[in-house]
Specification:
222 residues; 7-stranded mixed β-sheet; disordered N terminus
């Protein structure tokens, strides 16, 4: 791993950012994104011991900060000691699959405390309880891969929102009620023409052309 230091927006403190593997919060029984503050990702392997701006000076670990706080673990991420904030993991992948999430309310604010949100390009939300695609996902302009299979998404109109994610190339939606819609695959390919893979199956150029033809014959799609 390597460490990189960034001045925060005030210019008065430094946040130590440490590289790491994908953050895996799967199978944690999460019911809201704020529950992330009460969990440690399986691949969270970097040391919580940090250095201040003064060479050689050490501060308390994240664990000791948490023990000293009378409130929730969330407070530890906001505490600054000797100009140092707890580390953010440098990763491009976040796994929140196999939980009980039905909303991403506050997603951007929460995730930004544990990783640089702008770096996120692979998000796994499979096997949760989402019934639509919320606006929160549209705040991830660099997202390339999104897993949503095994949820409760029904409406085509909800999926259309993903058109604003211009970097998105891989999407999964199988195992949702939406995949029983007649012409489902054609509709998804025509709706999101930049996709390269849908439901773990590569999309060919011929298939894209055929999807446009087939969808044009269907009339208005709700």
């Amino acid at each position: 791993c390597f460490a990189a230091k960034m001045a925060d927006l005030t210019g008065t403190s430094v946040r130590e950012v440490i590289s790491g593997p994908p953050l895996d919060y799967s199978f944690c029984e999460l019911t809201s994104v704020e529950d992330l503050f009460d969990e440690t990702p399986r691949t969270h392997t970097y040391s919580p011991l940090k250095k201040t701006k003064k060479k050689g000076a050490k501060v308390e670990s994240v664990e000791s900060l948490q023990n000293d706080q009378p409130t929730r673990k969330k407070e530890a991420w906001e505490i600054e000691i000797n100009g140092v904030l707890p580390p953010k993991a440098i990763t491009t992948t976040l796994k929140l699959n196999n939980n009980a999430l039905d909303s991403l309310k506050g997603f951007a604010e929460v995730i930004d405390k544990i990783m640089p949100t702008a770096q996120l390009n692979f998000l796994d939300l499979s096997f949760n309880h989402f019934n639509n695609i919320g606006e929160e996902l549209l705040q991830l302009p660099n997202l390339k891969c999104l897993y949503l299979h095994g949820n409760k998404i029904k409406g085509i109109s909800s999926v259309k929102r993903l058109k604003s994610l211009t970097a998105l190339r891989t999407l999964t939606l199988h195992g949702n009620p939406i995949d029983t819609t007649p012409g489902y695959r054609f509709i998804m390919i025509a709706t999101l023409p930049k996709l390269a893979s849908l439901d773990f199956n590569r999309i060919t150029e011929k298939e894209k052309q055929n999807a446009i033809i087939q969808v044009s014959k269907m009339g208005p799609i709700k």
